[in-house]
Amino acid sequence: MALDLLSEIYSSFEPFKPPPKKAYVDCQDVRGGWEVTRELGRKITRSKQPTCQLYSGHRGVGKSTELLRLKEHLEQKKYFVVYFAADDEDIEPQDADYADILFACTRHLVEAIKLKEHNPLLNWMKDRWESLKDIALTEVAFDGLSLEGQISQFAKITTNLRATPDKRRELRQKINANTPSLVEALNDFIQEAQKSFSAKSANSRGIVLIVDNLDRMAEIKEIGKPSNYDEIYLNRSEMLRRLACHVIYTVPIAMVYSGRATQLENNYDKPDVLPMIMIRNPDGTENKLGLDKMRELICRRIALIEPNLLQTLEGTVDGLDFPPVFDHPETLKNLCLMSGGHVRNLMQLIQKAMDWTDELPITGKAAKRAIEETRETYQKTVQETEWETLARACHLKQAYNDFDHLGLLLKRCLLEYRYYDQNDNLQIWCNVHPLIEGIPRFQDVLAKVRAL
Fold it and tell me: pLDDT tens, 351-381?
């Protein structure tokens, strides 16, 4: 039983997948009041015109979890929501382009909304089938396919695009040459779909397209050309905004933390950024509410395996035949503190601690080894020229808007937190990642900075 329990608990802390719905924890009180149905949802529910929003945050901070919650919220309000993770099947994160994203949006809309009578997207594909069928790796005539067969060709093309770089370049050329006609067909399709939904239900509110995981795209720079980030979000902003439905695109945080931030805001309004969970206050004291939220993230997952485990979470309880998950409350608390309020870091630390665990409970020694292993990764990440920048930011609790500080924010060596003070003023502050604080080299440089 113990081995099975270990396996179940280990799997429940999978760091790269959103948790089950019942494991969701509302963290707005320790994220500067950020709440997805207000930050992203209200613009959709209150606008009479299609909206286009950008959404960002550090990798693993919980963006997908919040988007899935928004999807459910909007569906309850009678919107038809099409959500997809772009990097699952559609785009290659190391080589992504505007045409890939546009075609991925087309593919998921046509798959989710199966129009039978008048389908402008199928007509668009039919008109260009001779030039596209080699990318779909088929010689079949488009007219000879069933409705499902015709729709499936969009998926075949995106799958082949991801797998075959040569095909990717070929399709991009064809899409870029036909972008206006594809966007027009896409908008005709959306309008036909909305008419169909309205005919079936007077309460239908419209279509929302959520494109997740675009923030995982690598930035590609070539001399004399705009980067793919600039080409997609700035040069193609008019096309991204032109879809006749509400759209949310995730955007790499490197664009938000850069000199391009004002251009993004001019083109789309201010991008929403999901903050870290604040587990310490600026003065270094523990933030009890933040730690309680991190503990709740753990409890919700464990309760889904076996509710009785919560009674033995941090120690043995007489009369219950379940082992404690952690040997002591301090073991669990230490893992939460060392995560820095970064959800994926917490999940990874727990799994690493379980790698040092043969049977429950997870001990303080196993947690310490997990912390030291992860700390080693951060020590390798920090370059020699960056220690002083980190120490100064830790001392001042601020990150300057320059290349050095922004680089450390993007590497999550510096973490940013937000809260509202007693006068309801938004306070934004930074600190070094807790795992870096324990590195002797950092402590030596910090002591010198404080002595100045």
Answer: 999 999 999 999 999 999 999 999 999 999 9
Residue 61 in contact with residue 190, Cβ under 8 Å?
no
Number of separate helices (H) and strands (E) present in the chain: 23, 7
For residue 72, give Cα distances in angstroms to 180, 206, 207, 245, 273: 32, 14, 13, 17, 20
Question: Among residues 404, 395, 364, 302, which one has the least CA distance to residue 22?
Answer: 302
pLDDT in tens, 29-38: 999 999 999 9
DSSP 3-state of 280 = strand
Q: pLDDT at residue 222 above 70?
A: yes
Per the structure block, which two tokens stand in for 25?
């924890």
DSSP 141-207: -GGGS-HHHHHHHHHHHHHHHHH-HHHHHHHHHHHHHTHHHHHHHHHHHHHHHHHHHHHH-TT--EE
| Burial 348-366, CB ≥16 within 10 A → b, else e | bbbbbbbeebeebbbbbeb
321 pLDDT above the threshold of 70: yes
Amino acid code (one letter) for 321:
D
Model pLDDT for residues 62-75, shown as the tens digit of each residue = 999 999 999 999 99
Are 147 and 116 contacting, i.e. CB atoms less than 8 angstroms apart?
yes
Beta bridge partners of 208: 81, 246
CA distances for 46 relative to 74, 78, 195, angstroms: 12, 14, 20
- Whole-model pTM: value is 0.93
Could you give the 3-state DSSP secondary structure of residue 242? Answer: coil
For residue 1, what pLDDT is reported?
43
| pLDDT of 424 strictly over 90 | yes
* Tokens coding 228: 């793919």
pLDDT at 320 over 70: no
State the Rg of the chain over Cα: 25
Strands 52-56 vs 414-420: parallel, antiparallel or unpaired: unpaired
